Structure formats: structure tokens, C-alpha cells
């Protein structure tokens, strides 16, 4: 006992000695006075580097401040995560330069709510919950560029090209908005083209080259930053327009190749100063931390840098750079002195620590020897206890293994039983389809072909048809479920516009929603969102989700369908939100289970298959179906789909339309309004490729016209002018039959808009109306109608008139084709010739590209691939690919007359992949090889 007490006293004495030595020699560790986090949307690019350099320059005067910087690489999701991580690490102040205002707002508000001052730099968030803002005024930058551009040209008129930054960036949109507002004062200045440069000089060059070739009279280029201005100058040099086109950039940074240098060298006519604001931001941050007065809004001024002031600015910046260099050199000397002092201090601490360590190790060695003997005795006892525990664990593991085998056997038996049930239901469903078809067929025939039915008989037959369709829908859902379970349902994805596809499905629910007093809204973030998708699968998904929403939404309720791209741009999200009764917490865990019905209240119970089928189909489509709901406040179902699918699931056919819209538009209405008589349209004739669009607000007349025309043509229908015009621009039909008196957009207004739009200007239009006065008929013909028929009209005469108009259109196509083959530079005297002139110009500008595709041309014209195909087919009677090939071969005849060019050179100049393919194509078109053609048309030199 006495030895143990002596040992403890020795330990205490050594510890006290060590503490006294360290306390006397060591100076307190320096902790930063302030910790500042800086969340950058990106650190790449000269402007962002200038911002960070400005912050570091100001911090060089405040060594007590610790700065932590993150780079989000222009990714909003990543920036949110980085902001939250900075806050978790402990901050006294947060500086944020957002990439996008909306996505990062929640993370910024969380930091502000925790009492951390938030300083926004360069860009704002979507909230007012911040401490201060420092940055330039992008609207003022755009307006200044417009005013200076007008003054630079000497006359406020001319053609202008605007080079934009990244689409969706707040800087891009605000500079564009300011430039557009500034040009309103100068109506003579007209923006003839906009080019997306994504802030990079290389990105814009192909598009700007095409724009300047299409508009050779451009006098001014406004680039959203100096780098893109430098790229514009290089394009102008290539086109020999340097000195003729004035170029204005933005940023006005210091350094070789930056704004001030470019103005001084005459590459840019001017640069609008947009200060990075690094020093101003750090000064404001230190005022906030030091409880000094500061301004919440700190808008940095801008000036125009041109030949009148660029030399003065360059001299000022050179002087500032020299002063900053001197400061940095003095700080470097001070740091070296501090490092020398710190190293000597470290050596002293090391010697003292070594001495104390030697004393402690000696004491511990003696104490450890005694402890080891005690530990060995305790280990022997514990090993015996562990052996006993291991035996018990082995027995328990054996029992668990037996129980697991029993559970697996039960699960296998359950799967077998379920498979047997599904096999029974599937076989039974197949047996039901034949009698259902035999019931539905005669009922349809009686309803559509028997004129002497009484009202009661007609109502009874409509009831039989409606319930037969419901039963057939349940059978089809059960068969789809079986296909998913056994992996027999395949995805056949095509590339198309998901916005148009979903809109067609929503339009089918508009009438039943209106009859029930439910407001149906469709909101798309963009008019066109392209993706690979299978329409046969997705129409079942959206049909089930919309059916449920309409079923559970009360009168005066609201259903909102929204469609937008995911934040990363790799997927699309379709959400269906209703204001119904919501889903109880008990049902939420089971709503995607097959045949689960839950508590549906006063609403008629369904089959319990709709949501389960929808989820299975979405998963099959490699997407995800989720929902959120609150009892009494409605539900929201979200379908997330990828824009790209594996190549094995994709086909090259045209994008699908909603299949059920072609078969049972009124059956949907009958599902929710039993009093409504449902009518099923006759199937379109499969042998005709000619598409006729019927626009008629009277449902009976619309149905009559469609049935009469379907004997010879494919038919699509619209019940109002707005929908009809939209379908005409989407489908590009071969002919349109339109009523005159319609609510909203009249038939005359529809014709006027069709003729004004080059996509539809070629389509023959037949107007039907009860207005028979001669002046009214003249009004219809003046609006652009090809034929004006008054009601009542002879159906046979209508059908023959349609055939005659289509034949005349075919002769006009042949005329255009001959005219185009003779002279591709025909003056555009009507919309069709203007379309051909624009199409020819785009193709000729890219003739050298071997990979020129229909999608590239459609994108240049601002239309979809399907619209381009149908327009070219309607005007020329040929496909787009054939048109490109014919234009190349026509151009080849001109180039072959130049004996300085070899046949291989001509082939590659016109975009052919090889000379042999060129020769084969030329001979197939003109029945003569290129060499033979040249020999016939070029006189040999003697």
C-alpha cells in the first residue's frame, strides 16, 4: 500500500512540473477572431477569379479573419449541400454568390434563421431574408450597352446581334431585359438574332457565323461578357467584317486578354464595367461583424470603358497593382519572421516534452509490470466465461437457421399460391374479353346506325355501353398487371414532346371536369420538353392518376397538372395535385398495393388496381411514382421520368400520341358523369396517309363530319378554335374543315392565324357556316379560305371538294419542286416560298457536314422534327432527307463545272462521307457519273 501511494505522489508531482513548464513557455493558441464562409457558385473564369482575388486582397489587412471557400461548379443542389455544411462547421458570417435564385433560397434562409448574418454577392436569392447585398446592376448594364451602342453607331438604326450567357442564369436574363428596354428608345435598332454563348468564346462561334451570314447588314454586336466579345471579333475577322461591326462587351477586367486590354487593342469598341465586388463585399462583412453602420443594399456602379478613358484606367490599375505588390512583399517578410520565431519556440517545447516523457515512461514501466500480473489472472477467468457464452450463441444460431428455413418455405408457398391466383384471374380476364367485345360491338352499331330508337332505348343502350367499357377497362388493367408481373410488357420508347403528349390526355378530362364544376389547370415550364418515352405505357399512368384525382375532388375543387425539367436537367417531373379529401395516414402505407381499396368515404369504391398498375408501369419505364397527402387538404402525385433511356428500349419511329384519346374520348366523361351519353368515334381508316383536321364546336356535327371523312382519310377533331389552331401547328394536317361561328376564336380568326404562320400557311381550309349572305362568303374567302360552304351542305359535295383541294395541292407541290430544282434562290413572295428559302439557306450553310440531321434543321427553324417533316412533305411531296440529298446533288452540278476541283473535293465539300457514295448518288439521280458529266460540260484545254 505504501508503494502505491508513493507512486501516485510521484505521478502527481511530474504532472504539476509539466504543467508549470508548458504554462511558462507556451503562449496561448491563436484562434481566429471571425470565421467567414464563402459559397461560390463557381470559381472558374477570369471574372470569378477577380472576385476571389479582391476578397483575398482585403483579407490581407485582417489576418485574424479565417475564410472558408467552396466551389459548387454551377450546380444548385451541390451549392445547397455546401452551404449547410459550412453552417454546421460553425460560422460568424456567410457570404453566398448563388448560381440560381430559387434552389439555394431554403439553405440561405436556414442559416439566416440561426442568427448567422448572410451577405449576398453578385446575385440574389428568391427571399428577402438576408443581411446585406453587394453587386452590380445587370439591368443597368444592359441599358447602358443599348444607349452607348446607339451613340456608337452615330445613328439610332441598324441590325443588332445579342450574344447571351448561360440560359436560365439571372445575369443573362437581367442583361437581356435591360438591353431590350434600352433599345425601346431607339426603334431603329433591331435585334435580328440571338446567340447562346454560355459565357465561352468558342461555344458561340458556329451559331454566330451562321447568324452573320444570314444577316450580313449587322452593325452592332452586344456580348454579355468580354470573352464572348473577343470570340465575336474573331468571327468578324473570318467573315472580313472587322471594323464594320461594332462590338460591346461586359466586365472590363484588368489583365492581358481581358476587357481593358481588348478595348486598348481595338478588339472591342467598348466594355461595360461590371465590378466583381470582392473588396466591397469583405468590407461590408467586416462592418457587420464589428457592429459598425452599413447599408443593406450596396449596388456597385458601372461605367463605359472605351478609347476615351481606357488609357487612364490602365494607368490607375497598374499603379494599384504596384502598391498591392509592395504590401504583399512586406506581409511576406513579416510572415517569415513569425515563422522563424515559431520554429524556435517549437524546438524548445520539443526538448521540454522529451524530458518529461522520459520521466513519465520510467514511472509507467514500473507500474505496468505490476498491472500485467493482475490482468493475466483476470483474462483467464474471462476466457472461461467466453467459452460458455459461445456455446449458447451456437445453439441460438441453429434455432434461428431452422426458423429462417421455415419462413422461406412459407414464403415460397405464398408465392406459389399468389401465382396460381394471378394465373386464374389472367385466364378468366382473357375469357371475358370475347363476350365483352361481342356485347360492345352490336351496342355501338345500334347506337350509331339505328335512327328509330326511342329516348329510353337510346339511354339504356348508352348505359350498357358505358358499363361494358368500364368492365373492359378493368380487364385490360388486370392483363397489364399480369404482363408486368411476368416481365412480358416491353417498353417501346420514341423521342418526342412530353408536353404535347400530356396536354392531349388532360384535354380529354376537360369536359368531365367542367360538368362536375372542377377547375382543371395544365402548367408546363416550357412549351417543348423532349424525352424518350413510351406513350402506350404513360397514357395508362396519367389516365389512372387523373381519374383518381377527378373522382376524389369535390365540386368547385381544383386539379393542377404541372410539367417541368428536374434541376439537373436529366429528367422530367409531372405532378398531379388535387384539393380533394386527401389520404389518411393508415391508407398511405398501402395505396400502391394491388387490390387495396382503403377508406374511400362516400365515393364509389374502385377496383384497387389503378395506383398499383400506375406504379408498376412507371417503374417499368425506369421512373419513380411518389405522393404526398394531408387529410382534408388534397393529394399530390409526382411521376419522375428520365429523359434518356437505354438504347435497347428506344425506337426511331415518330413520337406517340395518347392512345386512349384516339379510341374513347367521351368514355372518360361518361365515367364521371353517368348522365352524359358517351359516344365512341369510329376507327380511322388505316389505308390513307392523308390527315384531315375537323374544328367544330357542335359535338354532333363534329362527330358526323369525322365519321363521313374517315371513310377516305385519317381524321383528328377539335371542339374550339384555340385547340384547333394548336393541333394544326402540332400535327400539320393535309386539310382543315372549320366552322365559322365558334366561341373564343372564330373560324375566320383561325384561318387568319393559319395563313400568318408559315408552318400552316400551305394547308387548304374549308369553312362551314350557317351565314349565307354573299358579303359573308366574300369575307371568308378574303380571310384565306379555299372553299366556303353554307349549312346545310351536301356531304357528297363536301367529300368531293376535299378531294379536289388535295389534288390541287399536289399539283402545287410539283410546281414548287420544279421551281426549287431550277433556282434555289427564288424570291420569297408567299409564306411557302419564304419557308423554302429559309430551309434552303440553312441546308446550304451546313452542306459540308456529313452528320447533318433532320433534328439539327428543325432546331434551327425553331420547330419540332414532326412539324418539319409534315411541312416539307406538304409543300414538296418529299421527305427532308431527300430534300437535303437533292440540294447537294444540284449543287454538285455547279461545282463539277470548275475543273480546279477534284471529284473527291466536291464530294467532301458537299458533305458526302466518301467519293464512291457521291458518285453512286449522282449517277442514281442523273443517270451519268460525275466524271462523265464533267467530260460533257468542260471543254478540254489545248
TrEMBL record:
Assigned EC number: 2.7.13.3
Coiled-coil regions listed in the entry: 379-417
Transmembrane stretches, start-end: 347-367
UniProt domain Histidine kinase: residue ranges: 427-645
Reactions it catalyzes: ATP + protein L-histidine = ADP + protein N-phospho-L-histidine
PANTHER family: HYBRID SIGNAL TRANSDUCTION HISTIDINE KINASE C (PTHR43547:SF2), TWO-COMPONENT HISTIDINE KINASE (PTHR43547)
Keywords: Coiled coil, Membrane, Phosphoprotein, Signal, Transcription, Transcription regulation, Transmembrane, Transmembrane helix
Residue numbers carrying 4-aspartylphosphate: 739
Domain Response regulatory: 691-806
Top EC class, one word: transferase
Signal sequence residues: 1-23
Domain (HTH araC/xylS-type): residue spans on this chain: 837-936
Species: Hymenobacter yonginensis
Protein name (record): histidine kinase
Highest taxon above the source species: Bacteria
InterPro entries in alphabetical order: CheY-like_superfamily, HATPase_C_sf, HATPase_dom, His_kinase_dom, HisK_dim/P_dom, HisK_dim/P_sf, Homeodomain-like_sf, HTH_AraC
Keyword Metal-binding: no
Amino acid at each position: 500500500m505504501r508503494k502505491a501511494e508513493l507512486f501516485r505522489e510521484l505521478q502527481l508531482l511530474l504532472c504539476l512540473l509539466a504543467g508549470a513548464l508548458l504554462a511558462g513557455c507556451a503562449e496561448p493558441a491563436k484562434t481566429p477572431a471571425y470565421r467567414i464562409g464563402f459559397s461560390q457558385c463557381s470559381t472558374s473564369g477570369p471574372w470569378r477569379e477577380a472576385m476571389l482575388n479582391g476578397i483575398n486582397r482585403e483579407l490581407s489587412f485582417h489576418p485574424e479573419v479565417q475564410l472558408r471557400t467552396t466551389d459548387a461548379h454551377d450546380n444548385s443542389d451541390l451549392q445547397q449541400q455546401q452551404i449547410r455544411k459550412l453552417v454546421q462547421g460553425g460560422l460568424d458570417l456567410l457570404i453566398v454568390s448563388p448560381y440560381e435564385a430559387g434552389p439555394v433560397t431554403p439553405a440561405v434562409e436556414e442559416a439566416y434563421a440561426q442568427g448567422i448574418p448572410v451577405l449576398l454577392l453578385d446575385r440574389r436569392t428568391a427571399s428577402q431574408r438576408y443581411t446585406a447585398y453587394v453587386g452590380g446592376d445587370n439591368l443597368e448594364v444592359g441599358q447602358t450597352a443599348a444607349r452607348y451602342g446607339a451613340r456608337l453607331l452615330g445613328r439610332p438604326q441598324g441590325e443588332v446581334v445579342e450574344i447571351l450567357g448561360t440560359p436560365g442564369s439571372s445575369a443573362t436574363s437581367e442583361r437581356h431585359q435591360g438591353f431590350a428596354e434600352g433599345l425601346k428608345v431607339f426603334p431603329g435598332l433591331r435585334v435580328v438574332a440571338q446567340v447562346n454563348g454560355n459565357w465561352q468564346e468558342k461555344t458561340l462561334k458556329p451559331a454566330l457565323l451562321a447568324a452573320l451570314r444570314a444577316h450580313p447588314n449587322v452593325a452592332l454586336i452586344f456580348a454579355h461578357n468580354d470573352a464572348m466579345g473577343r470570340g465575336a471579333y474573331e468571327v468578324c475577322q473570318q467573315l472580313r467584317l472587322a471594323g464594320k461591326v461594332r462590338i460591346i462587351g461586359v466586365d472590363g477586367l484588368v489583365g492581358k486578354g481581358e476587357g481593358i486590354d481588348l478595348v486598348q487593342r481595338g478588339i472591342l469598341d467598348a466594355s461595360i464595367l461590371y465590378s466583381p465586388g470582392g473588396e466591397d463585399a469583405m468590407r461590408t462583412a467586416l462592418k457587420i461583424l464589428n457592429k459598425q453602420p452599413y447599408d443593406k443594399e450596396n449596388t456597385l456602379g458601372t461605367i463605359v470603358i472605351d478609347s476615351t478613358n481606357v488609357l487612364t484606367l490602365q494607368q490607375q490599375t497598374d499603379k494599384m497593382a504596384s502598391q498591392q505588390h509592395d504590401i504583399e512583399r512586406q506581409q511576406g517578410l513579416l510572415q517569415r519572421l513569425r515563422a522563424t520565431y515559431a520554429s524556435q519556440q517549437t524546438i524548445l517545447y520539443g526538448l521540454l516534452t522529451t524530458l518529461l516523457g522520459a520521466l513519465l515512461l520510467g514511472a509507467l514501466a514500473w507500474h505496468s509490470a505490476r498491472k500485467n500480473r493482475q490482468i493475466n489472472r483476470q483474462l483467464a477467468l474471462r476466457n472461461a466465461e467466453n467459452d460458455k457464452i459461445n456455446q449458447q450463441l451456437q445453439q441460438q444460431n441453429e434455432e434461428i437457421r431452422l426458423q429462417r428455413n421455415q419462413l422461406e418455405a412459407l414464403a415460397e408457398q405464398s408465392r406459389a399460391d399468389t401465382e396460381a391466383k394471378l394465373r386464374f384471374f389472367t385466364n378468366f380476364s382473357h375469357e371475358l374479353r370475347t363476350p365483352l367485345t361481342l356485347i360492345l360491338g352490336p351496342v355501338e352499331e345500334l347506337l350509331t346506325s339505328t335512327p328509330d330508337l326511342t329516348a329510353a332505348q337510346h339511354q339504356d343502350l348508352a348505359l350498357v355501353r358505358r358499363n361494358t367499357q368500364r368492365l373492359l377497362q378493368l380487364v385490360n388493367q388486370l392483363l397489364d398487371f399480369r404482363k408486368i408481373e411476368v416481365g412480358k410488357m416491353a417498353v417501346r420508347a420514341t423521342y418526342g414532346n412530353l408536353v404535347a403528349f400530356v396536354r392531349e390526355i388532360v384535354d380529354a378530362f376537360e369536359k368531365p371536369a367542367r360538368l362536375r364544376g372542377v377547375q382543371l389547370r395544365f402548367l408546363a415550364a416550357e412549351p417543348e420538353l423532349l424525352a424518350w418515352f413510351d406513350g402506350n405505357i404513360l397514357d395508362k399512368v396519367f389516365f389512372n392518376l387523373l381519374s383518381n384525382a377527378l373522382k376524389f375532388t369535390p365540386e368547385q375543387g381544383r386539379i393542377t397538372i404541372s410539367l417541368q425539367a428536374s434541376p439537373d436537367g436529366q429528367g422530367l417531373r409531372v405532378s398531379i395535385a388535387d384539393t380533394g379529401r386527401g389520404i389518411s395516414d393508415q391508407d398511405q402505407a398501402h395505396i400502391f398495393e394491388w387490390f387495396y381499396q382503403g377508406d374511400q368515404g362516400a365515393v364509389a369504391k374502385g377496383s384497387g388496381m389503378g395506383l398499383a398498375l400506375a406504379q408498376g408501369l412507371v417503374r417499368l419505364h425506369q421512373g419513380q411514382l411518389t405522393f404526398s397527402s394531408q387529410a382534408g387538404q388534397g393529394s399530390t402525385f409526382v411521376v419522375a421520368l428520365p429523359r434518356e433511356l437505354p438504347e435497347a428500349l428506344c425506337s426511331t419511329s415518330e413520337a406517340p400520341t395518347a392512345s386512349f384519346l384516339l379510341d374513347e374520348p367521351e368514355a372518360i366523361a361518361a365515367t364521371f358523369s353517368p348522365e352524359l351519353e358517351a359516344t365512341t368515334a369510329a376507327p380511322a381508316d388505316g389505308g390513307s396517309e392523308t390527315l384531315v383536321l375537323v374544328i367544330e364546336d357542335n359535338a354532333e356535327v363534329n362527330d358526323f363530319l369525322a365519321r363521313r371523312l374517315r371513310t377516305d382519310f385519317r381524321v383528328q377533331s377539335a371542339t374550339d378554335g384555340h385547340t384547333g389552331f394548336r393541333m394544326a401547328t402540332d400535327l400539320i394536317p393535309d386539310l382543315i374543315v372549320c366552322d365559322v361561328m365558334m366561341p373564343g376564336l372564330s373560324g375566320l380568326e383561325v384561318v387568319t392565324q393559319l395563313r400568318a404562320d408559315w408552318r400552316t400557311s400551305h394547308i387548304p381550309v374549308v369553312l362551314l357556316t350557317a351565314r349565307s349572305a354573299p358579303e359573308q362568303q366574300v369575307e371568308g374567302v378574303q380571310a384565306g379560305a379555299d372553299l366556303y360552304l353554307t349549312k346545310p351542305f351536301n356531304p357528297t359535295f363536301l367529300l368531293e371538294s376535299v378531294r379536289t383541294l388535295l389534288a390541287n395541292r399536289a399539283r402545287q407541290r410539283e410546281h414548287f419542286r420544279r421551281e426549287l430544282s431550277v433556282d434555289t434562290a427564288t424570291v420569297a413572295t408567299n409564306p411557302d416560298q419564304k419557308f423554302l428559302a429559309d430551309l434552303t439557306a440553312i441546308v446550304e450553310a451546313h452542306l459540308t457536314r456529313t452528320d447533318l440531321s433532320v433534328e439539327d434543321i428543325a432546331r434551327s427553324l425553331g420547330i419540332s422534327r414532326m412539324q418539319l417533316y409534315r411541312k416539307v412533305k406538304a409543300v414538296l411531296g418529299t421527305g427532308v432527307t431527300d430534300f437535303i440529298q437533292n440540294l447537294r446533288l444540284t449543287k454538285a452540278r455547279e461545282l463539277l463545272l470548275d475543273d480546279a476541283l477534284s471529284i473527291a473535293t466536291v464530294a467532301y465539300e458537299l458533305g458526302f462521307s466518301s467519293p464512291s457514295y457521291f458518285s453512286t448518288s449522282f449517277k442514281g439521280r442523273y443517270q451519268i457519273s460525275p466524271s462523265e458529266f464533267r467530260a460533257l460540260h468542260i471543254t478540254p484545254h489545248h
